[in-house]
UniProtKB/TrEMBL annotation:
Belongs to the glucose-6-phosphate 1-epimerase family. Keywords: Isomerase. It comes from Clitoria ternatea (Butterfly pea). One of its GO terms (biological process) is carbohydrate metabolic process. Its EC number is 5.1.3.15. Signal peptide: none annotated. The keyword Glycosyltransferase does not apply. Substrate binds at residues 85, 103, 108. This is glucose-6-phosphate 1-epimerase. The keyword Transmembrane does not apply. GO terms for molecular function: carbohydrate binding; glucose-6-phosphate 1-epimerase activity.
Length: 333
């Protein structure tokens, strides 16, 4: 028979176990599709994100209602060496197919490693839902891009559910050589109907039209809307841009640093039929926005580091509800 001290200890242990079970799990490592490793991030208000170590790729970002905010194709191929169609693929060390490497570079087709002890956030941040992924040059893969580098990617959920990606790329060459690259966060947003979406913040800017041999034009509309295939690269863009989904009454507010260019892409009904890993009708529900540094490439000397950052918020859209003026979104932060 237990004495009263023993009974009290058992009761106290049960209370401790209950408290521990109620503590949120901010970072969870597990297996995803086809046995690929992924990490799930959760913040206390209910937002979540999923990141695959293959490609260092965010494939899901859900709000506190469990609604998916990123588009991933129903035909996406989660089998290396194929890239994953959707989420946020990373283009490095080249954007598009303008160089000698595979289209959009190799970062999205490599296995990244998870840093078990990432540096903490600055003391003024309360975020605990974050990871650092690291990509380095394989010793046996220097033929196509013969440089040594360290690419550190931080994926984080802010206390309010904002999705933040920060890339730091360092030249670790020991032969004294510089290297040059271009870069993009290739973000696929999930939208209700692409024909009811508009982008504000890029009006009056110059862009290169990839459907017209990269000829340069100036945007004439008061916002970007969609009624046919679009493949444009906007130059010298502002740091804040609003993507407004009319039907969902939702605005994506995108903030970026170190990424002066902005790509906008939707294949529409004809081009989508030539893409094997997107269903023919899925173009209606996706918008690809690329926060990029493309027109002027980045050159790093040995020991130098470049940083590029993107932060996305999903807020009620005033364009429909009157709760938020999209133009104020662009300039009020």
């Amino acid at each position: 028979m237990l004495d009263w001290i023993g009974k009290e200890e058992i009761v106290n242990q049960k209370h401790r176990n209950r408290r521990m079970s109620r503590q949120p799990v901010y970072v969870q490592q597990c297996m995803g599709i086809n046995g690929l490793e992924k990490v799930i991030l959760r913040e206390v208000r209910g937002f979540s994100a999923e990141v695959y170590l293959y490609g260092g790729q965010v494939t899901s970002w859900k709000n506190d209602l469990g609604e998916e905010l990123l588009f991933v194709s129903s035909k996406a191929n989660f089998k290396p060496p194929n890239s994953i169609r959707g989420g946020i693929p990373i283009s490095f060390p080249q954007f598009s197919n303008q160089g000698s490497l595979e289209q959009h570079g190799f970062a999205r087709n490599r296995f990244w490693t998870l840093d078990p002890n990432p540096p903490p956030f600055p003391t003024n941040s309360t975020s605990r839902a974050f990871i650092d992924l690291i990509l380095k040059n394989p010793e046996d893969d220097t033929k196509n891009w013969p440089h040594r580098y360290e690419f550190r990617l931080r994926v984080a959920l802010g206390p309010g559910g904002d999705l933040m990606l920060t890339s730091r790329i360092r030249n670790t060459n020991t032969d004294g050589k510089s290297f040059t690259f271009t870069f993009a966060y290739h973000t696929y947003f999930c939208v209700t109907d692409i024909s009811e979406v508009r982008i504000e913040g890029l009006e009056t800017l110059d862009y290169l039209d990839n459907l017209k041999n990269r000829e340069r034009f100036t945007e004439q509309g008061d916002a970007i809307t969609f009624e046919s295939e679009v493949d444009k690269l906007y130059l010298s863009t502002p740091t804040k841009i609003a993507i407004i989904d009319h039907e969902r009454k939702r605005t994506f507010v995108l903030r970026k640093d170190g990424l002066p260019d902005a790509g906008v892409w939707n294949p529409w009904d004809k081009k989508v039929k030539t893409i094997s890993d997107i269903r023919d009708d899925e173009y209606k529900h996706m918008l690809c926005f690329q926060s990029a540094c493309v027109e002027k490439s980045i050159t790093l000397k040995p020991g130098e580091e470049w940083k590029g950052r993107q932060e996305i918020s999903a807020v009620p859209s005033s364009y429909c509800s009157g709760q938020l003026d999209p133009r104020k979104v662009l300039f009020s932060y």
